[in-house]
Amino acid sequence: MKGYVFHGPGQSAWEEVPDPGIKEPTDAIVRVDAVTICGTDLHILKGDVPEVQPGTVLGHEAVGEIVEVGGDVRTVRPGDRVLVSCITACGRCRYCREAAYGQCLGGGGWILGHLIDGTQAEYVRVPYADLSVHTLPAAVPDRDAVLLADIFPTAYEVGVLNGRVRPGDTVVVVGAGPIGLAAIATARLFAPERIVAVDVAAARLEAARSLGADAVADAGEAPDQLIADLTTGLGADVVIEAVGVPETFELCTRMVRAGGHVANIGVHGRPATLHLEDLWIRNLTITTGLVDTHSTPTLLRMAAAGRLPTSELVTHTFPLDRMQEAYDVFGAAADTGALKVVLGGPLREVVAVQPD
C-alpha cells in the first residue's frame, strides 16, 4: 500500500510501505476512506515532536471500513464503517479507568502517527479496537465525521471543559485555526455572554464570525486592550490558547481576569515564560492537556443531530494520492485560506432515510 512517511524534519513522502497486519488479538485493520491533516502533523514535520521516528506513517484521524479484526475484538466486525480516534485506549490501566485515555499506560494514548504507523495511508492497524474506534451513524458523512477524530473533542475537552466555560462568561479564543474554530463552536453550547476570536489572518477571523464569534480582534492590534474595554477592565473569564507559541500564551495570561481560567490547547515547540511575578496573586487556573476523547460518543450524537458545524470547517478536498499537495495547501493556510483539508474518495454520500 501507500502511506505518507516522515523521514526527518522537513522530509516526507507519499510512498510504498508494507501492508499492516494483525499483531495482537485486540487489533483491527481499517481501510481508510477519509483522512485529514492536523496542525500537530505540521509540528512533527518541523521537528517539534522528537519522539516520532523517521520511517513512521503520519496521521491520527480517519474514517474507514473494518476489513479484519483480531480474535478478541467484540464491538466491531468487518464491513462496519468507523471513526478512528486520535487516542487509543487499553481500557484497563489506572488512567483508562478514569476515562483519561490520553494518558493510557497500557500501550495506548496518542500513538497513531506518533509512536506507531498512523492513518495517512490506504490501510491502518488500530490497536485496542474495541475502545479506539467508533461505529458511525449513517447520518454523518465521511468528511464531517473525520473532524470528530481529533479537533472537535480536543477543542471541547481541552479548551471548553478544562476552561470551565459557563453561561454569561466572556470567552476569548486566541488562534482561529481549525482547533480554535471548533472551540468557538463548542463554547457556544454553554451560552457565554460573548466569544471573542483573536488571530492575524482576516480570513480566519471571518470564519470565526460565521461559527459564532461575537467579536474578532487582530492579534497585532492590542487585543488585550479590546478585552479590557469589553469587560470594563475586568478581563475575560476564560481564555483558550489555540496556537502554541510563547507570545500567544503570554497574551492569554494578560487577557484573563483574576480568578479566571487559561486553557492551553496549542502544541508548544519552544519554552514559554510563566510570569509568576505578576500572576501569583491573581488566583488563576492554567490547564494544559492532551485530549482523552471521552466526549467522542456525545459529539457524534450531536453531529448526527445537526448540532455541530463540521462541514463549515472543510475548505479543501483531495484524493489520497495527492497527499503532498494537501500538505502544501494546509501548511500555507495564510495564503490558501485552508481550514481543514480532507483526503479520500470517492467520499460517501449520505442518503436520508424517510420514516414509514
TrEMBL record:
<dbReference type="Pfam" id="PF00107">
    <property type="entry name" value="ADH_zinc_N"/>
</dbReference>
<dbReference type="InterPro" id="IPR002328">
    <property type="entry name" value="ADH_Zn_CS"/>
</dbReference>
<feature type="domain" description="Enoyl reductase (ER)">
    <location>
        <begin position="8"/>
        <end position="343"/>
    </location>
</feature>
<dbReference type="InterPro" id="IPR011032">
    <property type="entry name" value="GroES-like_sf"/>
</dbReference>
<comment type="similarity">
    <text>Belongs to the zinc-containing alcohol dehydrogenase family.</text>
</comment>
<dbReference type="InterPro" id="IPR036291">
    <property type="entry name" value="NAD(P)-bd_dom_sf"/>
</dbReference>
<protein>
    <submittedName>
        <fullName>Zinc-dependent alcohol dehydrogenase family protein</fullName>
    </submittedName>
</protein>
<keyword id="KW-0560">Oxidoreductase</keyword>
<dbReference type="InterPro" id="IPR020843">
    <property type="entry name" value="ER"/>
</dbReference>
<keyword id="KW-0862">Zinc</keyword>
<dbReference type="InterPro" id="IPR013149">
    <property type="entry name" value="ADH-like_C"/>
</dbReference>
<dbReference type="InterPro" id="IPR013154">
    <property type="entry name" value="ADH-like_N"/>
</dbReference>
<dbReference type="Pfam" id="PF08240">
    <property type="entry name" value="ADH_N"/>
</dbReference>
<keyword id="KW-0479">Metal-binding</keyword>
<feature type="region of interest" description="Disordered">
    <location>
        <begin position="1"/>
        <end position="20"/>
    </location>
</feature>
